[in-house]
Design goal:
- InterPro entries: Thiolase, Thiolase-like, Thiolase_acyl_enz_int_AS, Thiolase_AS, Thiolase_C, Thiolase_CS, Thiolase_N.
- Pathway: Lipid metabolism; fatty acid beta-oxidation.
- Strand 3, helix 3 and strand 4 form a beta-alpha-beta unit.
- The two termini are 30 Å apart.
- Helix 2 packs across helix 3, helix 4 packs across helix 15 and helix 7 crosses helix 12.
- Helices cover 33% and strands 15% of the residues.
- About 6% of the residues have low confidence.
- Strands 1, 2, 3, 4, 5, 6, 7, 8, 9 and 10 form a 10-stranded mixed sheet that branches.
- The chain is α/β, with parallel strands linked by helices.
């Protein structure tokens, strides 16, 4: 169907990496019974449901809000959709990346604003693009060890109003002025101000360790794996086309409308989905490596505002509360590699690792939801999974992992089209997986994502027998 599947090039010539994982045994043992457990002492941890605000391009309808407003709405909407009592929630794990200083523990502040009990503790997690994945798996760990039974996980990102600091020299002067005891001391400090002090300290979507943006890493991966501009645009068009179809057919039931104060029309859907033509995509110039790069604005995820939330509990507790879970949360793993050459290859490492932990293989997965940072990143990971050479040199396997069937891969679109509010995407991926497992009548789903710092996540989800969309 797509040329990138046919063009699995020899990557020995162009790909220089330094990471590896330990050798694994690949004996496949599949239990097709729904109420399986991996050992007799483990709890069945379930995903009840998830919600999210519409994901909007930054600078649009949400631009005058705070991240708090979106986070609060996600938590309030989750409570309304599922109908659990306030006192049932024992803990809240919430993610964010670009932190608003006035609400540094956004999970706690948003929960109070949403009317959750003041006796429910909350903490905020930062793990780049996989922050709300970490919120879910932290909840799983707390439940597994018996600390709590019912936890809300979520995440928010608000790129319309990111924190911008004064320059460091100016900050130093301001701190000194605050401590100055006399007018003379304050005037002396005022006289030392120079024009350069007024240059702001702007945050950047770049790696601290390398100073390089993810877009540059995407271009490097494209060159290393022999990915063409046509392949990248083709994949981006696929993402937008599938997302538009899912939106039109009413599949994106995790979206909860949001009434923005001062705006008459209720925000009810993602606004970044745009189906273009191959000719229109081909006209765009490279965004990062100019003039020869292949990563453009159209085949990259865009800066997005949005929030999400989900309810995690045990199967037994769900039954006692009268709730019907959508899926079992079966397994997860986190990986990390070299943040330069392997920055965006987290899925290629996490997928085989979590499959082995779950005693499954590629063919057992009926639903794939993999974060789309760039078309180049997705195609590089697919080629890595389909490469014997990559498997032998960097996964320490005898042969390639294999490529999933494309009709099972991000069939409702992905981050390229739906949007990517950094810390909210993980919940969307899991919720879409659970909903697709039901809609497409599949048993197992796999969620994977890359993240800043060369990190990544892999998660296995199993449809619950009582699940309903």
């Amino acid at each position: 169907m797509f040329t990138f599947i046919k063009n699995v090039s020899r990557i020995e010539q162009g790909f220089k990496v330094y990471g590896s994982i330990y050798p694994r045994s690949w004996e496949i043992q599949i239990n097709k019974n729904y109420t399986t457990k991996y050992d007799s002492s483990s709890k069945n941890i379930v995903f009840v449901d998830g919600v999210r605000t519409p994901f909007l391009q930054s600078g649009t309808q949400y631009k005058n809000l705070l991240s708090y407003d979106l986070a609060r709405h996600s938590l309030l909407s989750l409570k309304r959709k599922i109908g659990f009592p306030n006192e049932a929630i024992e803990y809240i794990c919430y993610g964010t990346v670009m932190q608003e200083v006035r609400t540094s523990n956004i999970g706690r502040e948003a929960a109070l604003g949403a009317g959750y009990s003041q006796h429910t503790p909350a903490h905020t997690i930062t793990m780049a693009c996989i922050s709300s994945n970490q919120a879910i798996t932290t909840a799983m760990g707390l439940i597994a060890c018996g600390t709590y039974d019912v936890i809300v996980a979520g995440g928010v990102e608000f790129m319309s109003d990111i924190p911008i600091r004064h320059s460091r020299p100016m900050r130093s002067l301001m701190l000194q002025a605050n401590k100055a005891k006399s007018i003379g001391q304050k005037l002396s400090l005022l006289g030392s101000i120079r024009p350069s002090h007024f240059v702001p300290d702007l945050p950047a979507v770049a790696e601290f360790s390398s100073g390089e943006t993810m877009g540059h890493s995407g271009d490097r991966l494209a060159a290393a794996f022999g990915i063409t501009r046509k392949e990248e645009d083709e994949y981006a068009l696929r993402s937008h086309t599938l997302a538009a179809q899912a939106q039109r057919q009413g599949y994106l039931t995790d979206v909860v409308p949001f009434k923005v104060p001062g705006i008459e029309e209720v925000v009810s859907k993602d606004n970044g989905i745009r189906v273009s033509t191959p000719e229109q995509l081909a006209k765009l110039k490279p965004a990062f490596v100019k003039p020869y790069g292949t990563v453009t604005a159209a085949n990259s995820s865009f800066l997005t505002d949005g929030a999400s939330a989900a309810l995690i509990t045990t199967e037994e507790k769900a039954r006692l509360l009268g709730l019907k879970p959508k899926a079992y949360l079966r397994n997860f793993t986190y990986v990390s590699q070299d943040p330069v050459d392997q920055l965006l290859l987290g899925p290629a490492y996490a997928i085989p690792k979590v499959l082995e932990k779950s005693k499954l293989n590629v063919k057992d997965i009926g639903v794939w939801e993999v974060h789309e940072a760039f078309s180049a990143q997705i195609l590089a990971n697919l080629k890595a999974l389909d490469s014997d050479w990559f498997a032998q040199h960097y996964l320490k396997r005898s042969g390639k992992v294999g490529v999933p069937e494309l009709q099972k891969w991000n069939s409702w679109g992905g981050s390229l089209s739906i949007g990517h509010p950094f810390a909210a995407t993980g919940i969307r991926l899991v919720t879409h997986t659970a909903n697709r497992l039901i809609k497409e009548d599949q048993q197992f789903g796999l969620v994977a994502a890359c993240a800043a710092g060369g990190q990544g996540v892999g998660m296995i989800i199993e449809k619950h027998p009582d699940a309903k969309v």
